Write the structure tokens for this entry.
Amino acid sequence: IYTTSENLFCRFSANNCQKAVIEDTLIIGAVALVLIAGAVIVIVILTSRSRKDRGSSAAGANDNLIQRKDTERTETGDTGLRIEGISGVLSGKRIMIKSKGSVIIGRDPRQSNVTVPETTPGISSKHCEVKLFKGDLCITDLGSSHGTFVAPGRRLSPNETVTLKEGSIFWLGSEDQKFIIVSKRG
């Protein structure tokens, strides 16, 4: 004999109580599964953003000043040499020199794959090109207005090409925009 109406209800409808408990358990399980799946998605998104941020900010704080069509970690044909900015708007930036293709520095992103701000004095729209040619690293002035210089101060004629090596220093327009050739780890 049951003394409360609740017990009386459950006694006569035990199947209903069991069904309710099972339904509640299934709902709780489904909610937990959705929460776990959501957490996994958030973790994956955050991890991929973190990896992208590390790749893009590794070059320095002013990444918006340089636009690269080549990415150091994913491209093949790495020569192991870099152009490193030692003064000016690209100071501290490292640009990979690949065995195929070239690095063209200038103000116009349609003509150059390494660009500087339009207002950068002394640098033309398509200023100079650095590339590997028949095993030698070369720099060519592309008809710039203010010149391409190789240390100790030799100005290249328009379309003149000279050989560079690790440790070579060059600048564009003035020594305010100076670069050095370094090794990948150097």
